[in-house]
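=== Given protein ===
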Amino acid sequence: MIRGRCLCGGVSFEIDGPVAGIQVCHCSECRRAQGSAFGTNLPVSADRFRLVSGAELLKAYESSPGKDRVFCSTCGSPVYSRLHARPDRLRVRAGLLEDDTGLGLAFHFHTGSRASWWPITDDLTQYPEDRPAD
């Protein structure tokens, strides 16, 4: 069981079962949404994600057509994103995960638009544009 929570603790969740590695997105939209050089995401089947508390605090913002970014309305922590075309799949923000998950990084994507001031120094696979399908 993987647990996570937002900054204020109002939203907490659990993820059940095996999950893929953490994916690092360098697109300009993720940089703006996270306020950082990249976003770190964990693709999760929606049926393995359970909201423990804070459903009433969640707000969604359609950042681009067909894509919602869901966040805590109290502290602003991004919780997950979802595509309207794939409601069965969530991309949970890895920065919210608690404890040692044992998860590692899987790959970088949208590296063609990465922040010029953040070098990628590991040997993980880099995709200049979108990631492979989950």
Q: What stands out?
A: Helices lie at 28-34. The chain has one helix and eleven strands.
